[in-house]
Amino acid sequence: MKRRDAIKKLSVLPLAGAAIGSTLPIGSCTTGHAAEKRDLFKELDVTPVINCRGTITILSGSLMLPEVMEAINQTSEQFVDMFELQDKAGEKIAEMLRCEAAMVTSGAAGAMTLATAATITGTDREKIRLLPNLPGPRPEVIIQKTHRLGFDHQIRNCGVTLVEVEGPAEMEQAINSNTVMAFFFNAARSHSISHEDFVAIARKHNIPTLNDAAADVPPVENLFKYQEMGFDLVTFSGGKMLHGPQSAGLLFGRKDLIEAAKLNNNPYGDSIGRGMKVNKEEIFGMYAALKAYLEKDHEKEWQEWLDRITYIGDRLAGIPTLTCETVLPAGVANAFPSMDISWDQGRVRITPQDAAGALRTGTPSIHAGSRDGALNIQVILLKPEWVDIVAGRIKEILEQAVYV
Fold it and tell me: Is residue 227 part of a domain?
C-alpha cells in the first residue's frame, strides 16, 4: 500500500502535542469489588509482560478486544447446542467474508488439519473414523520446497505424504491419483510457483487448494484476496491482529469442504479433530472479533501506530548517536510498522541484544527484539499507558550505557 512505501525506512519525525500515555503500571487480572482485588499473576507467580515483539504465540498472541470479552462473558452463562452454534456462526462469518461457508477452528493450525482431513474423507464416516490410518496408498499433498516449515506438521497429522515441488512443471508432474490437496504457505519467503499458477494447475487437475494466511492481516483486504484468487480454502489466525481468542481461528471457502471439515471436528467423537475443541465462548468471541475488525477504521489505527513510534523516538532524543527508523517487513505476514533503534556502540556501550535482555529482566518485564544491529520495538500491541513506560525504560537503559 502507498502509505507503507512512504514510511519504509524513513527517520522518525517529531510528534507535536501532548505525550502519549502515562506512567501507569502494567495492569493485573482483577475480579470483583475494588476492595477485593485478586491478582492471579501473583497467585501463580507468573510475570505479566509488555509485548513489544508482536503477535507471537509464545507471548500469548494478542489482547482480546472489549467486544470479544463482552461476547465471552455474556455467553458463558448459558448452554448451547454446539452443532447449531458452529453452523449459525459459520453462516454469519461467511456472509462477512463473502464466501460460501466458514467455521471457527482451534487456531489456524487446527484449520490446517481439518482442511486436510476434509479433502481426504469428504463426508465418508468410515474414512473419518479411520483417519489417519486409511488402508491403501497414503494420500499425498503438494507443497513447494520453500513452503516447508514446522507448521506443516498439522497437515502430516492426517497421515499424508508431503510431495515437495519446485516450479509449475514439477507441480504438474507430481499430481497423481493419490493427490488430495495442494497447500500454499502464504508467508513463505519465496514462491517458486505464484499464487495464480498454483491455483490454475490445481484446478486443472481438480485438486483442492488450501492457503495458510494465518498472520496476514493487516491489510484487511487480505481476508478476501486469496479466495478471490481461487483458493478453495483459506485460514487465518484469530489470536493475532483480529484480536480474537488466541486459541481460535477461521477456515473458510468451499461449502462442501467446510461441511466435511466439520464432520472431522469436535464435537463429533472418533474424529481426528475431537481434541481440537473450540468452546462456545471462543466461537462467539471469534464472530465478535471478525465483526469488530471489519468495522474498524484501519487508517486511523495505522496512524496511531505511527504516532507511538514517533513518541518513543522523541523521548529518546538527546542520546548520543541514536537513530530511530520506521520499518516494515518485506513479506505479507505481520505487515505493520515497527521501529528500529540503533546507536554507535562506541558511545553507547551496550549491544541491542543486551538492551533487549535488560528490558526483559527489568520491572515491568518488556519483551523486545534485536536484529541487524538494532533494537526492534513492535508497537502494535501496546496499550496507551504502556507507550510511555516502554520509552522511559529504553531511555534509562541507554543513558546508563553512554560513555562520557
Answer: yes
